[in-house]
């Protein structure tokens, strides 16, 4: 579109002033008007703009250095800095679309200024967080986000046909995206912070002003769930819970068929097309897609078709060996129905027939032959999960009033930890079931060819107590 035919020209300067004369734009000379209306300016957010803002900040800092570098009250310094230096660095930030790298450059400049104001150097080994508390300087990134949120509400409420609102929803005619990562758009931050329907919400000024700070703080101090509930992360206890249970991005080291055999990562047909291509799963799964919710429904249909509780237990055990995420999703959504299957009373019957239904090892088996701290520690080190916070241990002597089941008592710690995950929200990777196998006095198990434990009478007395003591010391050493 030839904008010059309509009296519109592109200016690279935000603060250009009307004047007499001519101006060259792209090798052409144009007569400058005596007045104009700026609808926007060319957003070309490169290093030169960051450098200009940083230089402007340092110039203001040097103008006030006699005060900022003096020994006066830090609160007075912060007031002067926040009203002189900071505005110079964020001038025009309402229309910025900075990347993480560009935000980092601004933060680096501010950190250098704060260290100069606090009269500390890197040799003093004082953290940036401690210096920020001492100086009381505002967070530059937070101030930029506040300005952008405020300007977004102003633009959304424009209803007089101004170009600013029109340009907001503009897309190029050529819909093909260039190679590489998509460029950051101005709306991306607003959408991520205040949801995709931010324009409708911003048209109500009172409502927008209420969610203004909360929306900004979503990336810093507030966590907003999908159901609209907002948690104040300025509370240390709430912040600790948020860090504990927040979703994590997983970057698996396994690919292809090995990933499908990993129960911690396998999602079955819930892998998206992009994930299948990226993880080397294309062709290893059927062409259809099935969400986790659909898989939960299908699994519950299969469970309810089983003739008895033991068959249901075996089906859930196989599901846990194949897809751990789906197993816990099924258990959480149907905990009242499945709790008697996963734990008492069905787990007692499963322990009695554990040798016959044994499929995949779960947990660790420590025997009386490993009665030393070094051997037990080596066994604990074989566990694939590095961070263990919940250990359930049994020696299999008294299992739900069924007597001495020996190593077949592994079903008890496995079932108990499954309930810890489903009901208490503990991560499965933190759980470790352990059986201390010191033999069994159950003659039926000793004669059973399918028994999976030590075939000897149960060890008691001093040797048993030493094994328990060594186990506790090895666990404390982890």
UniProtKB/TrEMBL annotation:
Domain (Malic enzyme N-terminal) ranges: 320-478
GO cellular component, one term: mitochondrion
Taxon lineage: Eukaryota, Metazoa, Ecdysozoa, Nematoda, Chromadorea
Species this protein is from: Ancylostoma ceylanicum
Isomerase listed as a keyword: no
Chain segments annotated as transmembrane: 32-50
GO biological process, alphabetically ordered: malate metabolic process
InterPro entries xrefs: Aminoacid_DH-like_N_sf, Malic_N_dom, Malic_N_dom_sf, Malic_OxRdtase
Gene Ontology MF term list: malate dehydrogenase (decarboxylating) (NADP+) activity
Keyword Membrane set for record: yes
Keywords tagged on the record: Membrane, Transmembrane, Transmembrane helix
Protein name: Malic enzyme N-terminal domain-containing protein
Pfam families: malic
PANTHER family (alphabetical): MALIC ENZYME-RELATED
